[in-house]
Amino acid sequence: MHTPTQTMASTLLFLFLTATTAVASPNIIHLLKPHSGSAGHKHSNLNCLSWRLAVETNNLRKWTQVPQACEDYVGHYMLGKQYRQDCDLVAAEAYEYAKALNLTGDGKDVWVFDIDETTLSNLPYYARDTVAFGAIPFNSTAFNAWVVEATAPAIPGSLKLYKNLLKLGLKIVFLTGSEDIYMEARVKNLKAVGYTTWEKLIMKGAGEASGVVYKSKKRKELEEGGYRIRGNMGDQWSDLLGSNAGDRTFKVPDPMYYIG
Amino acid sequence: MHTPTQTMASTLLFLFLTATTAVASPNIIHLLKPHSGSAGHKHSNLNCLSWRLAVETNNLRKWTQVPQACEDYVGHYMLGKQYRQDCDLVAAEAYEYAKALNLTGDGKDVWVFDIDETTLSNLPYYARDTVAFGAIPFNSTAFNAWVVEATAPAIPGSLKLYKNLLKLGLKIVFLTGSEDIYMEARVKNLKAVGYTTWEKLIMKGAGEASGVVYKSKKRKELEEGGYRIRGNMGDQWSDLLGSNAGDRTFKVPDPMYYIG
Q: Could you count the other beta carbons within 10 Å of the beta carbon of residue B235?
């Protein structure tokens, strides 16, 4: 159940994510997390800009949570306009690439999208006081409850790209590490925010491998099925590395969690 | 021949790159390039932070020069402390990784370093008024003349890493797209700044392929020769992608030029 503060925060976040020019006030972080500053690891020498760049370039791997010292930095980044503009530029570049593709028209040219932090945003969840933008260890029970709510907003740049790719004649494949027990919630969530059609929605079965092994296997099956992966977009390097990665890959930002 | 302004600027840059805590004044850019602001493309809507992130994550490819609108941004980044700290964090992470390696002691465990913008910095050249941090098209004649001077400073984080890797017992391989006609100058430059020993220094022969094809071929030859590439560090994704990439790769920042 939501506290009133969480509900207000979610509403603010939703407004932020759907408005074109809105910039969230940095103070929202303190609103959500009034105890910030009382934890023990605030005075690290870690340069959080360097940390984020190292995350985005896959120099840092297998990290399990955002460093305490960078909680506020990551929060400000995620709620501010920079994250949104970073996503927009990746989407714009992807569209420039896609426009120049020579599509065959046989319905086998596909674009692979990851879901979480690629097409749907879990930022309303990650901004919670109990999650702290990934600076508190991952709680699968709480996260799965959030997934079932099916209220994640679209990432605006990715939604626009999705619509433009459909117009170009590409087929869409959603390939996610979400488990297939959440199929109904994910379908409801995708459709509610504008991802209304797709060629395939591939979710992980219970007991399947995860990360780069899982994604490579599913992409290999796609290509063995006659599909050509012309583009592949994800927030994790494990979406983009491995076999059958696609003709070109696009990395969208995600400084909140790591999946190997 | 250097103008007095260029000489002074080179001296300032050298001091900056060798001092531990110095932060170059942003004004140095205007000192070097007093005509900044008179060009025609200053009022782009391009978000230069997003552009740099897209470059570093390999989302933008085959770009030929820094956008005019981002010349000052790239200059401030390269001359300021953020670039240095970004490099330091990558080097620190690489050392953490290397320390945990189980080395065999047979002399076949190697670390591959690219040279330009990875171990040596061409920033004194790129800061010139006639180069503008890569916002002016590449001039191979002028750049090659700079290479022959053999006065490029070390990138401090990489030099420290190099020394620490040697202490761990790794052998060093420098693998560069520089042509072998510059062998004498590169050797002189590397030794002058502290890279005093190596297992191999591989430079490109006249007429050889370039970029990812060249680097993959040379790494394949290394591994066929019995070497194990335990780590591989470069400023270009073409240093790190392709075959025989190494057990782990490290991308150091370079927003000034692209090699495919």
A: 28
